[in-house]
Automatic annotation (TrEMBL):
Broad class of enzyme this protein falls into: hydrolase
UniProt KW keywords: Glycoprotein, Hydrolase, Iron, Metal-binding, Signal, Zinc
EC number: 3.1.3.2
Secretion signal span: 1-23
Catalytic reactions of this protein: a phosphate monoester + H2O = an alcohol + phosphate
Pfam families in UniProt: Metallophos (PF00149), Metallophos_C (PF14008), Pur_ac_phosph_N (PF16656)
Listed name of the protein: Purple acid phosphatase
Residues annotated as domain Calcineurin-like phosphoesterase: 169-367
CDD domains: MPP_PAPs (cd00839)
GO MF annotations, alphabetized: acid phosphatase activity; transition metal ion binding
Domain Purple acid phosphatase N-terminal: 69-158
Length: 477
């Protein structure tokens, strides 16, 4: 063998070793590393609606803490109801929502209720929650909240009727916070030409708990910051660890107090007994929201609910089965490593049995997409404890890169595990665009690029109707 031949074989061996140990792509995208900084209280995105006890669009320094932040979410199981929530600061005002379809001048009125809460030395405004019911599918509605000359008007479009071939486009945002990076993430999502119709939010909203005594003013500012999207399209909420707000040393002993007072979800419609786990159907998707920070061991309410819930999923009606949770099960960053492991052990066999299409999680402040893998063979003694390729398993996507104050997770486990198809430490958002019962286009957008540049994209083949291998890596066996 000549010298050239030797080096050729040596090079081939090196390449081969890399192919075996490298499961997918670790992006080499280089970015300027700057600290994520919260936007100051007088930022225009936090602009307080002026006028006594009610909102306008203009900003007023004098009325900085007299706020109204409006948001909506799905209000029933199938998308014919909407929960409208908002805050009035000075006095209760009215919990009425006036609404009408764009084809009608007849204003209807829905009556709601209001709640308040205290958190250490903070007293909330009057938080209104009003559910509008019996809406027509696929219809634009205008709605108004507030009284007299401080009335504010918004609109939303109801989803199409639940059915198997209904196209629908979901945005994915997680761990958003309220930094300049958060603002960029939200702006990119709003400008994305794929036009998300509903946000699937995978937890960690305001990061108010990073402030002294969990300064709940930062819950108010987050509400005003996100209003420009969430007053016009529903965000489907998942509870993260930054929603727990448990601070016994200052007397705050009720977990999730600010979150549950401010963000209502239609959990009873799916027979859930708590707002942290529930489901909704929307267009051709059945969306299950799980709670990483509520008990999920055997016999717990969440365990029993999910056991029954999975039996109710009808893939002929809703071909796409999507699960949201906060703490990821498959995560190859050195942050929150294996925090999702105990829930994975409990529920992963069910996900494979019921052929979940995709699981979206947050928590890790970076991006990662896996191949279809499962790790359910292990039984303590058989040593089968490595994830294996599994066409009945979901793809796991970590999208905790909304841009919060804690910054990016840049430290990854090496080598990249075989199950990890793509990972990159950049802020961004994703779009899951369902085309029909067999195909969905998925794409991830890093904030450094223009909002239309797909940094990672893949076609999803539905696990029930078209369970063909849709993996992007060929090194996994
Ligand atoms: Fe988190």
């Amino acid at each position: 063998m000549g010298v050239m031949g030797f080096w050729t074989i040596a090079l081939a061996l090196v390449v081969n070793v890399c192919m075996v140990c490298d499961g997918g792509t670790t992006s080499l995208f280089l970015r300027e590393v700057e600290k994520a900084v919260d936007m100051p209280l007088d930022s225009d995105v936090f602009a307080v609606p002026s006028g006594y006890n009610a909102p306008q669009q203009e900003f007023s320094f004098l009325l900085l803490f007299e706020s109204m932040s409006v948001h909506i979410t799905q209000g029933d199981l199938v998308g014919k109801a909407v929960i409208v929530s908002w805050v009035t600061e000075d006095e209760p005002g009215s919990s009425k929502v006036r609404y009408w379809s764009e084809n009608s001048n007849h204003k209807k009125i829905a009556e709601g209720k209001l709640v308040t809460y205290r958190f250490f030395n903070y007293s909330s405004g009057f938080i209104h929650h009003t559910t509008i019911r019996n809406l027509e599918y696929n219809t634009k509605y205008y709605y108004e909240v507030g009284l007299g000359n401080t009335t504010r008007q918004f609109w939303f479009v109801t989803p199409p009727e639940v059915g198997p071939d209904v196209p629908y486009t979901f945005g994915l945002i997680g761990d958003l916070g309220q930094t300049f990076d958060s603002n960029k993430t939200l702006s990119h999502y709003e400008l994305n030409p794929r036009k998300g119709q509903t946000v699937l939010f995978v937890g960690d909203l305001s990061y108010a708990d990073n402030y002294p005594n969990h300064d709940n003013v930062r819950w108010d500012t987050w509400g005003r910051f996100t209003e420009r999207s969430v007053a016009y399209q529903p965000w489907i909420w998942t509870a993260g660890n930054h929603e727990i707000d448990l601070v016994p040393e200052i007397g705050e002993t009720i977990p999730f107090k600010p979150y549950t007072h401010r963000y209502h979800v239609p959990y009873k419609a799916s027979q859930s007994t708590a707002p942290y786990w529930y489901s909704v159907k929307r267009a051709s998707a059945h969306i299950i929201v799980l709670a990483s920070y509520s008990a999920y061991g055997k016999y717990t309410p969440q365990y029993q609910w999910l056991d029954q819930e999975l039996l109710k999923v009808n893939r002929t009606e809703t071909p796409w089965l999507i699960v949201l949770m906060h703490s990821p099960w498959y995560n190859s960053y050195n942050y929150h490593y294996m925090e999702g492991e105990s829930m994975r052990v409990m529920f992963e066999p069910w996900f494979v049995k019921h052929k979940v299409d995709v699981v979206f999680a947050g928590h890790v402040h970076a991006y990662e997409r896996t191949e279809r893998v499962s790790n359910i063979a292990y039984n303590i003694v058989n040593r089968h404890c490595t994830p294996v390729k599994d066409q009945s398993a979901p793809v796991y996507i970590t999208i905790g890169d909304g841009g919060n104050i804690e910054g990016l997770a840049k430290n990854m486990t090496e080598p990249q595990p075989k199950y990890s198809a793509y990972r990159e430490a950049s802020f961004g958002h994703s779009i899951f665009e369902i085309k029909n019962r067999t195909h969905a286009h998925y794409s991830w957008y890093r904030n450094q690029d223009g909002e239309a540049v797909e940094a990672d994209s893949v076609w999803f083949f539905n696990r029930y109707w078209h369970p063909v291998d849709d993996s992007t890596s060929h090194v996994l066996h």
